[in-house]
């Protein structure tokens, strides 16, 4: 059964156990890792997902300004049910914006004493799937060609039963958080995760810290280069424009600046990933 990826996977040792278990990272470590990619004649793919969009707000405008300044595609995970119906028009003139489906209402249906789930097994499966279909019906006319067939589960949680029905909603890919264990699920859904979230959700959404945030990113890049992680999985940045403090914003901007200036880093538009012939797993007899 396709269940292992749901757990937060630990990055395995690349050269020594201490290298990935205890060592923090800083900006020179990121540059050194990208320099190693360059020395091997390789380019490290990166991608940016920004969650919880529903309307054009000052924080979102700030994120879009960074996207324009550094020419980095930004993939907005939009919540369909509460979305402002004029949101699609507000994005006109933003060439680097793509839209992903962020569940349906970002509503918790799990018991109050446990983790939050919208796409779990707490309700009838058909109801969950029908909500995803309804979400697509909201997003498609508003976002048109910006909408990519990628589902982002609220809180990065989704049950195997719902995964098996993702295709019913028209989505062909799934994005959660953490190193993927395989590119495709058993039903041919592609996994395109994020790996660096600079917010500490256990500390009232304050900045996680430069060293810890960079450690997650550098370790994923290192694991990819060394063959300890899927080398084809772009290393993903996950931001939340509506929850970020000034330290988090400063970190995100510097990350975009540092990587955009490095010849061995390339920020991806997921449209290109989804149009890759290798994406169509079901036609490869797998």
Report on this model:
By secondary structure, this protein is α/β, with parallel strands linked by helices. It has one domain (12-277): Alpha-Beta Barrel (TIM Barrel), CATH 3.20.20. Helices cover 33% and strands 14% of the residues. It contains 9 helices and 10 strands. Strands 1, 2, 3, 4, 5, 6, 9 and 10 form an 8-stranded parallel β-sheet that branches. The protein has a two-stranded antiparallel ribbon with strand order 7-8. Helix 2 packs parallel to helix 7 (210-225). The radius of gyration is 18 Å and the shape is globular. Residues 1-22 and 282-286 have low confidence and may be disordered.
Tags for this model:
286 residues, alpha/beta, TIM Barrel, eight-stranded parallel sheet, globular
What fraction of the residues are assigned to beta strands by DSSP?
Answer: 5-15%
Structure class: alpha/beta
Q: Low-confidence segments, ≥5 residues, pLDDT <50?
A: 1-22, 282-286
Q: If you consult CATH, what is the topology?
A: TIM Barrel
At the fourth level of CATH, the homologous superfamily is Glycoside hydrolase/deacetylase
